[in-house]
Structures are given as C-alpha cells and as structure tokens.
Amino acid sequence: LLYLGENGFRSVDVYNGKINFSGETATEFKLNKDETRIVAIDYNEGYLYAYDSKGEQTLNCELGTDMNYTLGELSPDGKQVSMAANTENTFGILLIDLSSGQSSFLNMVGLCTNVRFIDDNRLCFLLSDETEGLKHIVRYELAEGKEGYLCNADWDLSAMTLTEEQTCYYYHGSKVYEVDCNDKKGKKIWEHTFASDVNSVRAGDGIVGITCQDGSVFFYNEKTKQLINSQSGNGEPFYLLEVNAAYASLRDYWGKNIRVYKKNENEEKEAASLDISSVIKEIPDKWYTCSTDGSKIVLGFQNGINKQIGVFDAGNLTNVSSKTLSELDYESFG
C-alpha cells in the first residue's frame, strides 16, 4: 500500500503493517503505468520528488509556491511528469524531466485540467477558454509545439477518458463520444445515445464502462463496441472508480454504497451476486476507495471514527488482511 501520511510518503505491507520505505512529506502522488517510478508533490512547500520502485529518491526538485500546481501524469516511459500550472493571469502546463529536473512551460490561453499523456511525445488535456466561452479537448505535440482541438464545446465539458488505443471518450447529456487522438481534428469513431444522462466513463484493458444518472451500467468491448454486460438502474446513480479486464468497481456519490463486478468468462454460467454483508460483518457508514489487481481487492471504508483498509481475495472475497488507518500512521482518506 502506498499512501501519504503525517510523517511523509510511505509504502506499507498491508498484511503485517511493516513499512517498506518512507519518503518526504507530500500532498499527492502518481505512479507510471508499470509502477517503476513514483512522483510525489508537496503543494504547500513547492517541492516535487521522484522515487524508484524500491523507494530510493531519484529527484528532489524545488518548484516554488508562486504558481498553483495540479499533478497530471507520468509519461509511459516514466521519464517526465506533467502538471497544470497557473497564476491569476498565466495558464499552462509544466513538464519536468525526472532525470535532470529540468522543466519546460507550455503557455495556454486558459486553465488546463486532466493533463494526460497520449504517448511519450503527446499530451491530451481539457482547456477552458473563458474569453471565447468554450472548453476544448486539446492534443499537443511536444516535439513540434503544435496543438489541435479534438473537441470544442460550448457546454460544461469537465471529464475525458484516454484509452490504450489512443482514443478519447467524453460525454454530454445522454450521449457518449469517442474520438481518434491520431486524427488532427478528432474524428469521431463512435457515438452512442443512452436512455439517461451519462455521469461517468472509464476504460482499461480493452473494456469501456459507462454509468448513467438512472443507475444503469454498461460494459463494452472497446474495439468492437459489442455490449458485454449491462445492469438496469433503480434511480440511484453510481460512478466508475476503475475498470480492467477482470473487474470493475463503482460507488455512489455519497460513498454509502459500493459495487464490484467480476467478468464472467463462462457465458453459459449465470453470474453470481454476493451481498457485501457476507464479506464485512458491519456495513460501513461510508466507502472511500476500491481497487483491484485481479487477484486481490482493496477496500477503504469507515464505521464511526474507525477507518480501515481491507484486502480481500478476488476469487472468494475472503478477508486476507485489515488495518486501521491509525495503525498505518494515517488520519483520513481525504
């Protein structure tokens, strides 16, 4: 388990509580895709740190506090990190080389959010142009310094999802769109209308999950767009936390309810449904996190003042390990 505690960045073995390694105090952290490099940022003091998978610090970089930063993402090769950077009158993206600490600033006309890497040489992000009253999904070529708009919206475009196939999903009302990041004008390659407004889209391992305001959930094969499974709603919306080839996890807006879906490889076998009360004796007041690597499911939940991290076997959902946040020298999930 990686987390940011009062005494700094930590890696802890959730089975026995042993600290694997510790790092500097930070506010947020991100890993690259293969989890070989970790970047942590301290917004209050204006420092950025990089670590390898064993916890050895490889970079200590002073950013300063004259700009407001929001950590974006590490490049697929783990060699650089992106972040939104702005002041009252300056907007842009800061890129930092994780080997040398050298930085470059990309000046933009408005606030940038959701800064992601399409690949090692291209960025994709949301841009708010308050002057024109528009929001854009921008594709930016780092080598050429050129940008192109994959989407131009005069509505509140606030979310996008990049895929491993170098496409981008976004939604408006009851419609979901997929555009090609390799096309300069963002050619639409899929468009679908649902019976209710869409509230979240996640993609991973060739699966795309979509949830709607009426509580319905849909899973598609990302390439063929064949519907894999769907579930009707009861009027209570859920939001996707994670989607991969084996599992999908969701929670409601307030964190009162959580769902974990497991992909059924045998189409002739009826999918099983298991109530969470058979896994956790006392139903939590609130759920915070839910993630899985395919073999284990990690849940973060709270009952009264008791806040816990639980690790469960993904096959039979038996509890493998549980630790309170206080045992991990951590105060809250926030």
Describe, in plain words, how this protein is organized in 3D.
The protein is an all-beta fold and 334 residues long. 0% of the residues lie in helices and 55% in strands. The chain has no helices and 30 strands. It has a 4-stranded antiparallel sheet with strand order 4-5-6-7, with no helix packed on it. It has a 4-stranded antiparallel sheet with strand order 8-9-10-11, with no helix packed on it. The chain has a 4-stranded antiparallel sheet with strand order 12-13-14-15, with no helix packed on it. A hairpin with a 4-residue loop joins strand 6 and strand 7 (57-62). The chain starts with a strand and ends in a 10-residue tail after the last strand.
